[in-house]
Amino acid sequence: MDEEVVRERDARAYEAVHDAADFKELKRRYKNFVVPWTIAFMAWYLAYVACNNWARGFMDHRIGGSHINVALIFGLLQFVSTFAIAALYGRFANRKLDPLAHGLNAKYKRERRR
Amino acid sequence: MNHLLVPLAIPLATEPGNRTLTISLFTAVVAVTLYITWWASRQNKTAADYYAGGRSFSGAQNGLAVAGDYMSAASFLGISGQIALYGYDGFLYSIGFLVAWLVALLLVAELLRNSGRFTMADQLAFRMKQRPVRTAAATSTIVVSIFYLLAQMVGAGSLVGLLLGVKSEGLKAAVIVLVGALMIVYVTIGGMKGTTWVQIVKAVLLMAGTVVITFLVLLKFNFNLSDLLGSAAAKSGKGEGFLQPGLLYGKDLTGQIDFLSLGLALVLGTAGLPHILIRFYTVPDSRSARRSVQWAIGLIGAFYLMTLALGFGAAALLDTAKGSAVETSKGNVASPLLAEAVGGGAGSTGGAILLALIAAVAFATILAVVAGLTLTSASSFAHDLYANVISKTKPTEKQELRVARFAAIGIGAVAIGLAIPAQKLNIAFLVALAFAVAASANLPALLFNLFWKRFNTSGAVWSIYGGLSSAVVLVVFSPVVSGNGDKSMITGADFHWFPLSNPGIVSIPLGFLFGVLGTYLGRDKSSETRYSELSVRALTGAGAEGAAKH
């Protein structure tokens, strides 16, 4: 088949998927997850960086007479939050994004065959 | 970690028996990696095989390879060494390095996997004018990779000398040539498949070695973290201050803003590092790309948690006073010496074995990282510059791959040629600069391309060149290059006017700003027409490149 014809056929198939209600829903779900979570983890990380700079008294506070202080706990919580958000996103994407994406992918293949 | 690259040598393995053991293990690492390369070369047939390992790696395999690509000798020896010397502040780099993966996971990995093919530029070129965009993206890819590569190779020279206990300039140069030659062999013969397996093997070795040492350290303190910290603080001579922020960063307002600037570059740089981005092309679909990043986050996070035990363990168990081996090596020998100490001490068999093992792990770490960087630059040269800009006609796949192999040799030769004279300079800032350039030049272009319909060719070109040059120019006129005595790259001159060592806080917003300015000044709206195609493809994987079928 001519390259130009293939391009046009693909473009039509993409357009059809783009206009599908499911695609708008997929886009909405993706954005509604990643935008707030990105803002959240960036703010949480920058808060940690800022506390290292400007809240030394708070960070130096020792917990229960041990050598473990707030700074260390805050740092370890960055690990915990990173693991948790990664797991949460994986679960969300597997359940809420992948089924829609698979359906749309199949629609794209059908449209190309038309 | 900033000081990993200072050339020096302290005899570690001075006992002839120890040195033989270390050299045998180094040889074993080289033999295994060369065997992998040879094996991989027999499976490389197409461009997708060479550039993307046939897109047939599983999420877990690629996650290991991503971790192997990312955790350089600077993180392995550097971070634990900085903790050993500066306590809590030494730990701060690793947190930025880890949180950064959320940017990659949520915003970049899957969408890039679906919309690109082999290089970072592919994703931009999807809806932009090929030549200008590929030239810009290839320039930034090669600049970032060479910065990173130079830092690794100069580090390798002093490190291997250190680990073998040889104090000769000739040996360091020989090590640089050897490391350079090996990475050329891995990349030209093994391609992405060989490089990936080298990185997987390295990641397994690194994790295993670190687990063993961490376990032995914690055993000494009956798994009581507070005791470990307390002993480290007491031994450091700095008391509780050793466990608190402030020994390394943020001593005055300039230092505090500098630290914020570093934090921004670390957290935003990872998702713009070309050698990390092209790893996402090695898996068959976006779900595996997601799994890769999840695996990488688990491995890298666990590794950095363990460096905490290594660093504080070294502070508690080793001599870190002024003039000690740990102090004069800027912390780089903390982990190997700690391995010797928990293995039974100097002169014991257990100590000698663990020391040699950790030295071999460090060597494998260097090889895997430099191979990944060389492959990235060679791919970008062949696929972006040669095939789409330099060559007048569309080259065949075979021609393009031949150019990629020659490019790997050329880049390797350039890296060797630059690394040998650079040994005498303090170029430790290059790793942080690579992150700053990635965050200032590449990330704005990638994100705008994916999420902003109006973004166009001139916007992409402006953000890449604008972000790249602002980061580089600011560093050239910063205290890391001149005006800070012995700590600067050029001693004996002072032409600095930018007060911060890290340009990110200025250059990252500039990169985004240039993207917006370029877009509106360019006025070109043709790239909008393929935006719906790009977003469908990125989000659903429709029409994306699948796994190679053999």
Structure description:
The complex is a heterodimer of chains A (114) and B (550). In chain A, 88% of the residues lie in helices and 0% in strands. Chain A is mainly α and 114 residues long. Chain B has 550 residues and is an all-alpha fold. Helices cover 71% and strands 0% of the residues of chain B. Chain B is built from 20 helices and no strands. Chain B has helices at 16-41, 47-52, 59-70, 73-86, 92-115, 120-125, 130-164, 169-220, 225-236, 253-269, 274-277, 286-317, 325-328, 334-342, 349-390, 397-422, 429-451, 457-476, 504-522, 531-540. Chain B is globular. Chain B starts with 15 loop residues before the first helix and ends in a 10-residue tail after the last helix. Residues 1-11 of chain B have low confidence and may be disordered. The interface between A and B is large, with 56 and 53 residues.
Series of secondary-structure elements of chain B, N-terminal to C-terminal: HHHHHHHHHHHHHHHHHHHH
**Global outline of chain B:** globular
Radius of gyration of chain A: 23 Å
Strand content of chain B: under 5%
Q: What's the SSE pattern of chain A? A: HHHH
Give the terminus-to-terminus CA distance of chain B. Answer: 44 Å
Q: What is the CATH domain class of the domain at 16-244 and 273-391 and 398-427 in chain B?
A: Mainly Alpha
Q: Which outline of chain A best applies?
A: rod-shaped
Give the fraction of residues assigned to helices of chain B.
over 70%
Low-pLDDT stretches of chain B are: 1-11
**Distance between termini of chain A?**
14 Å
**Oligomeric organization of the protein chains:** heterodimer
Largest sheet of chain A: none
Please, what is the average pLDDT of chain A?
Answer: 94
Instruction: Name the CATH superfamily assignment of the domain at 16-244 and 273-391 and 398-427 in chain B.
Output: Sodium/glucose cotransporter
Structural class of chain A: mainly alpha
According to DSSP, the number of beta strands of chain B is 0
